[in-house]
Amino acid sequence: MICPSCGYDNVGGTDRCEECLTPLFNLDTPHADMEGLARSVMEDDLNQLDQEFLGVSPDASATEVIEKMKAARVGCALVLDDGKLVGIFTERDLLNKLTGKRASSQDTAVKELMSVNPEVLRETDSVAMALNKMSMGRYRHIPVRKADGTYSVTSIKHVLKYISKAEW
Description:
The chain is an alpha/beta fold. It has two domains: 1-31; 46-165, CBS-domain (Roll), CATH 3.10.580.10. Helix content is 28%, strand content 17%. The protein is built from five helices and seven strands. The chain has helices spanning 36-43, 62-72, 91-97, 127-137, 156-165, and strands at residues 55-56, 76-81, 84-90, 115-116, 121-122, 141-145, 151-155. Strands 1-2-3-4 form a four-stranded mixed β-sheet. Strands 5-6-7 form a three-stranded mixed β-sheet. The chain is elongated and about 50 Å long.
C-alpha cells in the first residue's frame, strides 16, 4: 500500500506507514476527492512555505548563538560542520539545558547543547509530511534539505501562515 503522504510502499494491511507513521486505514474505502485545504496540504510541497535559515558552527558559544537567534528573530539555529548538518539548537534546548539546577554555562559550545542528528525533510516533501513529522516528533522546527544541498528550516509558524493565506 503506497503512503499518500510520503510515497513509501508499505505491506498491504498495515495500519500506519512504516516510513512516516501516517495512518493508512480506510484508504481502500471509496471517498470523495479531497478539495481545498486538505488537498493543498497533501499535494503542496515545502517550497510553498516560508522558510528561514540561521547556520552556526558547532564550536560557537551558546551566548553567541542565542544573540544571533534574537537578531534574526528565529526560534532555532542549524549547527553545520563544513556544510554538513550535525544538529539543531532550539529555544527548547535553551530552556532545558541553560536553566535550572543542572544548567550549563552560557559559554558552553553549542555542540554540547544541541539536539544531534535531527530529522530532515526534502523540499519536495509535502506540507502534510512536515505536519506529521512535527506532530509525531513533538517539535516545532524541522530542517529542510534543498536540491542544491543547502538547508533551511520550516516551522509550525510557517505552516499556519501558509494555511491562513491560502484561498480555498
